Amino acid sequence: MISPTKKRIALIAHDNRKKDLLEWVKENADSLINHELCGTGTTSSIIAKNTGLKVKAYKSGPLGGDQEIGALISDNGIDLLIFFWDPLTSQPHDPDVKALLRIAVLYDIPTAMNKTGADYLLQSGLIDKEYERHDMQK
Ligand SMILES: O=C(CO)COP(=O)(O)O
Questions:
Q1: How far apart are the first and last CA of the chain?
Q2: 6 known member of a binding site
Q3: Which amino acids does the record list as binding substrate (predicted)?
Q4: Model's pTM, two decimal places?
């Protein structure tokens, strides 16, 4: 069983935001190494290659990766979502992006969409504590 303080963190970024996410992950690698990381295909492989962190890769976003992460959330498999989506470029899989964000809200998953939000999440102290999230299924 996963330790109660170990969080399952999904890392996702659109192409124009991958550099920013990678930078944030590098800045916070000391903390992130204590958690279980996963993400969409390309984001995961870029982070793993450039930081040495272990990141479980799902499919690339346009090929269904957002839907896989959404399914994980609905199965109680993700504790935090860091999703640097691109507000300036339309995505071929925009419905999947919207669905992922919807499901993250529905299941009350702490979600950050930019560097400052991610900093707040990581520095809130919540990440190192055991906490119970609201279960929308109840
Ligand atoms: O498109 C994405 C999220 O919507 C990200 O997918 P990749 O990490 O495979 O680039």
A1: 23
A2: no
A3: 14, 18, 40-43, 60-61, 93
A4: 0.94
- Maximum distance among all Cα pairs of the chain, rounded to whole angstroms: 41
CB-neighbour burial class of residue 124 (10 A; exposed 0-12, middle 13-18, buried 19+):
exposed
Runs of H (alpha helix) within the chain: 18-27, 29-32, 41-51, 65-74, 94-106, 115-123
Cβ(12) – ligand 1 distance below 6 Å? yes
Domains of the chain in start order, with CATH, are 8-127 (3.40.50.1380)
| Alpha-carbon torsion, ordered 120, 8, 131, 135, to 10 deg | 110
Identify the CA nearest to 92 among candidates 65, 53, 58, 119: 65
Residue 20 a catalytic site member: no
The one catalytic residue in 20, 30, 66, 119 is 66
Which atom of ligand 1 is nearest the CA belonging to 96? 4
Summarize pLDDT for 44-81 with one digit per residue, the tens: 999 999 999 999 999 999 999 999 999 999 999 999 99
42 is in an annotated binding site: yes
| Residue 76 bridge partners (DSSP) | none
| 41 labeled part of a ligand binding site | yes
